[in-house]
Amino acid sequence: MVEFAGWEMPVQFAGIIHEHLAVRRNAGLFDVSHMGQIEVRGTGSLGLLQALTTNDLNRLHTGQAQYTVLTTPAGTCIDDLVIYRIGEWEYLLCVNAANVEKDFQWIREHSGTGVEVTNRSADFGLLALQGPRAQSILSRCSDASLDRLAGFHLARGRVAGVETIITRTGYTGEDGFELYVPSTQAGLIWDHLLEEGAVDGLEPIGLGARDTLRLEARLLLHGSDLDETTTAWEAGLRRFIRFDKGAFPGREILLAQSRKGPERLLAGFEMIDPGIPRHGYGIIYNGKTVGHVTSGGHAPFLRKNIGLGYLPLALAEAGQEVEVEIRGRTRRAKIVKGPFYRRPARTEPVK
Amino acid sequence: MNPESFRYSKEHEWINGEGELRTLGITDHAQAELGDIVFVELPKEGDHLKAMQPFGTVESVKAVSELFSPVAGEVVEVNRDLEEHPERINEDPYGKGWLLRIRVADARSIEPLMTEAEYRKYIQDSSR
Q1: pLDDT at A347 over 70
Q2: Cβ contact (<8 Å) for A276 and B64?
Q3: What is the model's pTM?
Q4: Domains (ranges, CATH) in chain A?
Q5: Which of A192, A207, A250, B128 lies 20 to 30 Å from A106 when distance is taken between CA atoms?
């Protein structure tokens, strides 16, 4: 067990690699109740959230989810989050555990009339069911029509008889679901899913594999890969920044970076030489330290050693060779674009 | 489950064998604490190890750990299999997961190391 943002969480159950491969091959169940939930409702909710985030909420219909960033006036990242449009004037924000209080205060400070901001973190438990067998497992435990639920959409339905919000989202690079459940019922649903999913190879997954899975899928971790010292553009989140939506904090700075190119960009790399890059290690080019590893480690499915780090723009190009300083020795790595791991295409399209 | 005939160090290495040629590895307790081992960095044949000095590293998914030689000696063989299969250390720490064979500089330097019973007690005491 390890303490994380005030929560006691298991690092591993059967072992990190075993759990990682279980999610890639079959399915895994994560208790991510530490994640925070902030509810924003009222006729002013769209305007408030639109004015604080980088992505365009006008594109988000009821029943949909959107990945976005809360930015400072400097365009740096207060937090990255997923916003769910639960109803016409009702949004649910899923934010990082360490940032709940900060995000909540920030949003509340900016709210005017016609909007109610509530920290609902204590009310919700959050379970993530991820992997190629996730749908088949959940369909046996739920009345929701999951084959009609597309990626980044949500449905209301019962799981193990309990009313939940089921979203087709996750943090593993696999197909899967996240279940927003009453916190008092989370244990019951956890047990029920594990029991029902056993025949499909469902396993409980700890924090360790959660981190290796998200890194292999090149999903960012706030506090490591992006924070209030890095802009959303530098973090490579251009797909989630919409300049045509109107004003939001840091818009002009991000726009300038999009036009001129930022000085540095978050790059993914894989090791050519043996050695495991880890958070904080120097990235070297021509004998000079040009950046640091923000996330790094062994990728169990790919059987490669991979990492992320901010590099001068000219070096953040696919195929570029750099070095990582591992305990006093430089080891070669090369820049790669896109996710390290991409799941195989679905065989059956969503109806 | 630790072999009776082996000797053990406080840094959780074991040493085994008779005479001047000995085999060295990490204990079952050490591999369990580290978790899935994914990378091992070992010295070369001919390198000289100093007692209680780091000679390499073993990395699991979650952590890096230095390896300390329980005694001084010269490396005569390195377990090359670990380059491709570091998980052997998890699977069989006292067998296929061995690290080095060394020519011990002084056979008497083995004597102060812990016996199996002493090591077992050492782990129990340190986990309290």
Answers
A1: no
A2: yes
A3: 0.93
A4: 2-214 (3.30.1360.120), 263-339 (2.40.30.110)
A5: A207
